[in-house]
Amino acid sequence: MRGIAGVGLATPLGGREDFAAAWARGEAAAPEVDGCSAGKLPLRGGYPQARALLRRLDRTGGLLAAAAADLGAELGAQLGEGTDLAVGTDLATSETTFEFLGRIGTHGARHAHPQAFPNLVPGSAAGQLGLLRGWRGAAATFVQHGVCADEAVAWAAGRCGPVVAGGAEGLGPVRSAATARVGDGQLRGEGGAVVAFLGEAEGGRRVWCELGFDPGGRAFGPPSAGAVGRVVDGALERASVGRSELGAIVASSPALTETLGLRCAATDHAERVGVHGGDGAFRVALAWLLLERDLPVNRAGARLGGPAVLVVGAGRGGAIVATVVR
Amino acid sequence: MLIGVAGVGIVAPIGVGRAAFTEGLRRGRSGFAPPTLLPDDTGAPVAEILQDPRPALRSQAQAVGMALPRRHGRTVLLAACAVAEALHDAGLTVGDLGRTGLVVGTSTAGTRESEQRRIARDAESYWREVTAWELLSTPPGATASALARLLGLTGPVATVSTACSSSALTIGQGVEWLRQGRCDRVIAVGADALCRLTLVGFSSLKLLDPERPRPFDAGRQGTSLGEAAAALILAPGHDLRGSVRGWGAIAEAHHPVQPRADGDGARRAMAAALADAGLDPAAVDCVNAHATATPANDLAEARGIESLLPPVPVSGSKSQLGHSLGAAGAVEAVVALLALEGGFVPPTVGLRQLDGDIGVDVVTQARPFSGGLALSNSFAFGGNDVSLCLAARGWS
Questions:
Q1: Which end of chain B is more exposed for a tag (fewer CB within 10 A), N or C?
Q2: CA–CA separation, B60 vs A64, rounded Å?
Q3: Rounded distance, CA B141 to CA A278, Å?
Q4: Complex ipTM
């Protein structure tokens, strides 16, 4: 299995180092702004040589690029042109699509903006990041509801050479409305995160992933606890990790933590930085930080109770990914 | 491990179902016309599926125990019909699908159903009227969720969306899941319904030919959009319809929409697929080219082919099918497999005069053929290039 060589973050609490320090201090991001968002975070650049290109990115692409810049400072030299890239983003281009369609309605089809159209493709963020960094390996974009970046990490963990897995999503009216109307009660956030793997022989925290689906629930509801538990057990089996060895759980929803019946402490990231459709890579990065930095698991001061961290993503519509980081 | 293709299903403008589609392919059938199911915003022809695909595939769906959707959008409908045929072709029923994975490639997904309201309303009215169902059934991932529910799957489910190479990448993802032992079989699907968003978008980039797509032609002006769905049942050792010997994906890291003019991206994707298959370029018998019929794409792809492969027949099936975007990779993988099985290279229809800068052997009429190994190329915005190495049944 592959080992994580490093992570990069763009979160409401800052990049990786700022985030880790704020997390250790028990900080939370800006308070809820409009009932479903954690507030916009300042986009951290990092690419002064490519400002023109960054201006063309939508917010999701920009957040992904910012997270990659956070990673690049440490690992840039080791991520050469052959680097593979997997990105997960759920409603990535919905804002720009919304604007594009609105313009057709108000101005007519002939006035559609040619520069806008290529950025409506969900894979545009990965393409732009590859362009920025000169990464010319395989590139894939995953878009399965709620687990897209978890699946990007799973894809990356199965590759051989250097590979970066990321996930990002920016706030906007479409995303906010879509998630608010589902009524899951979660604080909406935005951000980007990347996780880097180097060669198979390299060290680092190992990652095992299991993917599954629950066909029985509501059309856009969460998967059942039983289905999530089955996928979690599959991941633990792949990792040869017993439930008692889990030091913490980083779940896409606090409700999952309760229903899984695990005794380990759960992170409270959902209420501190909010959740978004591409946050699977963030959850894996947080697991890595907990293990590497021995950070408190949550604001209650719980500490890691074992050598492995379980990351769970359970998307609207039924997809499930469980990842063990050890 | 031999990753076989145990069954295929196809719903396309030139035929619904494998038999009709193969016949249409061989005869060089095409159906480009002004859009009839959508407003004609661009003046460019499209390749629509004008018949309801459900009657033609209902008996197969019943045989496999699968209900064809009524309530879902067009992309889900097309995909479900293709999956029903593929399962039937593989001799499977819904009850057999334990440890089965599903990976879907799509780009427009539910856009067709949701775009009309947005185009017709101002933002305020839109937000007042839009439903949660509409918002959540639009994104690409909703198609796979709907299919997985129809099939009662519990295995891995993923959606890949890298524009025009989406569903070629789904086949690569399916191969990897099988190699990793994540499941016993994978249903790899590509599906996209035509919508105004993509028609207007391609038109804004001046990438649509006002007449029809003419890949590799000296006077080509662009592509024509189409809609389609294809499904492949990937299973170790079961090569009823052929096998996937390897796949390769690369990023050009060059330009958001333009390929490298020297064809380096195409060459590297094909080389990666052959390397994954453990094969030499000399083993390749034919190429199903991406061949969008845009001036830059065709020239770059031809240069990539010339720089890597010995002289082999090349065909561009978008000349018959139009460009079905996220579905194109899976659709054209099926084209390549059915052509290998049927012993012919499909024609590149509409080619009048080969571009003088293109030196590959472009097939203009269905050509009898005894080769067994094909490359199928899919290249996308953002420089996401994918190539599949496909073999006929029993090829070695």
A1: C
A2: 44
A3: 13
A4: 0.95
